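ASSEMBLY PREDICTION REQUEST
Request ID: AP-0331
Submitted by: J.K., bench scientist
Number of chains: two
Total residues: 626
Priority: normal
Notes: Please return the full assembly, not individual chains.
Input sequences:
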Amino acid sequence: VIAPLRYEDGVLLVLDQTRLPAEEVWLRCATPAEVADAIARLAVRGAPAIGVAAAYGLALADAADFEAAGRLLAAARPTAVNLRWAVNQVLAAGPDAALEAARGIEQRERAATRRIAEHGATLFGSQERVLTHCNTGALATTGSGTALGVIEAAWRNGAVAQVWVGETRPLNQGSRLTAWELERVGIPFKVVTDSSAGLLMSRAVVDRVIVGADRIAANGDVANKIGTYPLAVLAHRHGIPFIVAAPTSTIDPDTPTGADIPIEERDPAEVTPHGHAAANYAFDITPAELVTAIVTEDGVIDANAGKGPDPLA
Amino acid sequence: VIAPLRYEDGVLLVLDQTRLPAEEVWLRCATPAEVADAIARLAVRGAPAIGVAAAYGLALADAADFEAAGRLLAAARPTAVNLRWAVNQVLAAGPDAALEAARGIEQRERAATRRIAEHGATLFGSQERVLTHCNTGALATTGSGTALGVIEAAWRNGAVAQVWVGETRPLNQGSRLTAWELERVGIPFKVVTDSSAGLLMSRAVVDRVIVGADRIAANGDVANKIGTYPLAVLAHRHGIPFIVAAPTSTIDPDTPTGADIPIEERDPAEVTPHGHAAANYAFDITPAELVTAIVTEDGVIDANAGKGPDPLA
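STATUS: Completed
Returned structure:
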């Protein structure tokens, strides 16, 4: 397993995911502000991983700056609730117990990914062709991954023949990070443009879609990487199960519906290098009705999960 | 209007669209093989434009190689039927009348785009926010464009407030070429990732989708740039009109349905620069049931067109 974060002697080492797969560069973050910056510019990304990073980031704060550091870290990115959840846990522990709390969060999230993988793998049939989006592996979670962890566990069971990896524009977390992780493990895959999903489904070469989540509202609506909602709509049309895998730390009971989830808008220059006007929304909302099942460390949510195509289709 | 092709004294000058918008480089093609190569590597692209280019390419052939040159040009790309249609027209004219036939095809296609724009503009309401995909402007047609020509005509009528331009992966015809054309004309636009369409529609900031076509089957199924089918499925879900604009040369009565249209698969390296396995399908098929109206030079096909959201929604 690749560890995207390592805490050592008062420093958080962050594997700079913006440089992968070309090179493996480790950033040394010695202050909360440096960790917040690493989160904001996606050196570390993925909802569970940024929660863990923020927790360690807060543990780097001086006691006098503890509350302010918490606010800074919680504001580094708006959509994933894990960040705020982890910061609140460490704030509650207080400055003296902050490092211990951060270690506890990391252990909890690692353990959660293992159980997510076990639960999720039970949904699979035989030799499935699975489509995924963005990166939800070890890099995104500090553990064994959410959606990608499920795929790996299912593949070890002989239940996955091939993975279709959406490149995930504009920052290519699929073609850069997921492809890199799958290649290391040896799982067969092909990268495709995000807009290939419709053709692949219409040719009946996708048996299942599985993605992660950045926040799940109380009603089951799912915020995830931009492009997730179109995949869910297409899967629904084609009667293909659409699975979301995420730790319970991603579920936000204080957010009633997807409409209440803030959608991060990032620098337009990430979309167009030509200086043209652009809009760069980083996430979209998939309504609960399009989600076949949500897999958490506590099990599979939805009585119909694993029994074939979306019962709502 | 930008002319992507210019025939001068036995040479076809081709504006190299792979180099836009960074630089305007003109290729000098003196043989059918050079034109076929320019078509295959997308120096000239867009269904109407490659038909015109192939026609002039065949006019460059020696009489002895005329038939062979026709086969070479017709095979340069498989999906757009305009290529084969144009080559067959010039083959029927024979080597002595080939140049005249090519000029006739260019004139016919230019005139068609003007009438497509006029017919299409009648569909628009007021101050619409229009989403388009790929490039369907002057660069793609040698005339005033298909879908983009409609948008321009509607904008001149005050019927378009803003254009959402899908970047169109993997080769970015939207963010490179459509953005460049819209900026030259002064039409307000924003480039977005292709997978942003779902979020934009769910936020109700898209009033209409309009795209071109590479081939329209006899039953009305539409082959167009990969990613078109997901846009049609999303538009249908959101009750947004989905319009296809293409000259009648794009309609192929010999292709019964979309399933009979060959889908070009291009070099995987276009998708991933990291050497990972990839699949690069260049087109997808939108079933006729998802198309609100088809606009050709002869008028608008579909009695319900222009009367609001897709009647089939």
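REVIEWER COMMENTS: The longest strand of chain A covers residues 160-166.
SIGN-OFF: pending second reviewer
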